[in-house]
Each structure stands twice: as structure tokens, then as C-alpha cells.
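Incident log, structure service

09:12 report received: a user says their structure output differs between two submissions of the same chain.
09:20 pulled the input from the user's history:
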Amino acid sequence: MQSADVIIVGAGHGGAQAAIALRQHGYTGSVLMIGREAEPPYERPPLSKEYLAREKPFERICIRPQKFWADKGIELRLGETVSAVDPQDKVVTLSSGESVSYGSLIWAAGGDPRRLTCSGADLSGVHSVRTRADVDRIMAELDAGAERIAVIGGGYIGLEAAAVLTKLAYKVTLLEALPRVLARVAGEELSRFYEAEHRAHGVDLRLNANLECIEGSAGGVTGVRLSGGEIVPCDLVIVGIGIVPAAEPLVATGVNAPNGIQVDPFCRTNLPDVYAIGDCAVHRNRYADGALVRLESVQNANDMAVTAAKVICGKPEPYEGVPWFWSNQYDLKLQTVGLSTGYEVGVLRGDPSTRSFSVIYLRDGRVIALDCVNAVKDYVQGRKLVEQGSRLDPRALADTAVSLKELLSPASA
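09:34 re-ran on a clean worker, output below:
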């Protein structure tokens, strides 16, 4: 039986950063990274942006050159999945049937795209945007003549894909079941701004659009039928309705798993020497008032990876990173810091008509998050307001004549 001092399950941002951080912090034991894709670790955000737009080839989105992993003594087992975990004997079973023992296990498997459950969801031409292979299949169908695209889901993935495809002159219809886009992650001001932007660029954006089924045949999709009976003609469907944590083998062991694998401040699960990080990990976050959250972001994956690596290296530090996220659509750069969930007041700073503004979110009078559109200075300075939980007059926050830096406490400034 093969063995490794540390096995990392997942070769995305979290898994790659965990391996890198182990070496950076002096770990000399054997490290084995198991990835279900055939490719070496690569960045995921460009998939719905520069990679789909064909502005960046795959080589430019790799996290490190192939040679890096061998030079650092990090073994890659690609095209493999873990089918079972035995936490008592500290053994994982691979999809090939091989068993590998471990000293420590870092679960960084991420998540799988949430699938449609309606009729026609498995037709050729229905796609997700989660892996390189997903986007390669989309691009192949575009090259084969697909012209009309239906995007299901008005979250970041759906909006980014719609923006790229519209810029490439495809006819895009975006279908969102809720009354506004980004409803789960942002305030109404931001939602309405992005709705207007997409419509101005030619996207046929439908709200309260409930899906009944996907129309088509063995030859592929021909349309999306809505609950009212209308059929939206299309040659290709992109589904962006969230992810499901990839945690089944660990869940089968009895690990604490409320919509993901729960971890403590050091990314430890309730199983001995088993850690979980990234999109599949649930943790209590100080920026959510200690509530259990599961964050899907590069920042979260990377920061949790460093936390787990430091524990294994005997340098434990709790995970306390402030959440941040970004999205590029058209010529708009959205930068988010903090978590706006449960906000009570949204303060508009600046004029959306100028296409440079921020929305500042307050709860109990404290600044808990900012959404900044083409407003880098607000993002950089507002981060400190979130970190210190500043209590500020909304009128002062809205006044663009006063920089956010001037509102910081003297120590933070």
C-alpha cells in the first residue's frame, strides 16, 4: 500500500495552496495531491471570463508550471477521485481501487455544479461552468455554429458568461427565477445596476422566469420552456445555479457535515487529522457574527489552505481572513469585501450613472460589507472599516467629498 504523510484531496485553488503552504512553512514530509481532472492545478475564475473569451490560453491560468510540483516534491495523482475514507485506519480508497494511507488528510474537493432537475436537463447542449472541460465543450459548440444561448441563473457565473458571450456577438437570454439578479449576495441597488448594464449591452434578461423544461431531442437543445408556456429558442444552455459540496466519502464516515464539512477555527474536522478547506468547508465566521457559513471564493480557499498547512507544520494560527471577492463584466470591475448577508441599511456612495460607485452595508450601525464598482479606492479603504466594524453615520459614508480613509479610527488610519 502506498502511503503519504499528507494527502490533499482536490487540485483546485485550495488544494494547490495547501501543498504550496506546506513547503513554504518548512514541511519536509511526503505530500500527495489527488485531483479528479487530468490537468494540473489551474485557476477557476478565468473560466467564465478570460478563458471563455479566449483571451487567455490554458497555460496562462495554471497556478504553477508543471515543473514546480516535481521540484517541490509534491506528487500529483490526476484523473483520480477518492471513493472512500477510513478515518480509523487513516486510509483513502481511490476510484482505481488502490488504497493509500495518510498521516494527515486535507479535504479540498470543492463542489459539483447544481444540476437542473427538470425534463431535458441531460440533453446535449446543456452545460455548467466549473471545469476547463466544461468550457471547452461550450467553445466547441460555439465553433460548430451555436448562436443563441440561454443562461439559467443570475448569479456571478451566469452574469459573467452572459457578458463574455454578448461581447462576442452571440444572442444571449438570461433567465433568473428570483425578482432580481444577485439577490442572495448583494443589495437591490447593485442588482438593478447590473440588470440595466446587461440589457444595455443587448442581453434579453428575464426576471421571475421559472423554468419548466428544456426542449430538444437527441440532436441537442432547441429551447427553454418557461412555466407560462413561452419557449425561449436556443442552441446552447449554460446553467449557473450554485454548487453542491463534494463531500460524500467524508460524509459517509459520519463527519459533521451541515451543507458542507464543518471545521473549527484551525480547519480541523471532528475526525482525527482530517482537515477541510475551501468551497466544501463550513466554518464560523467572525464577519458573519459567528454564524456557520460556506464561502465560495479564491480568498477563502487560499486562506483556509494556509491555516491547515500551518497546523500540520506545528505553527497553528486560526483562520480569520476578511472575505473578499471580485467579478469582471464588460468594462466593470466589481470588488466586494465583507459579507452583506443580513444587512439592515445599504448606503449608496456615488452615482451609478457614472459607472463608478459603492454600496456600503450596515447592520446594527456597523459597516459589514462593501460592493465597489470601478471604485478601487473605496474598496481598499473600506476594507479597514469592515475589519474594525466601524460605526458611522450613513450620511458620512455617502459623502464622496470625504474619503473613507478619513472615517477610519486614528489607529487604523
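09:41 both user submissions now match this output. Likely a transient worker issue. Closing.
09:42 reviewer note: The two ends are 56 Å apart (CA to CA). The chain is about 20% helix and 30% strand.
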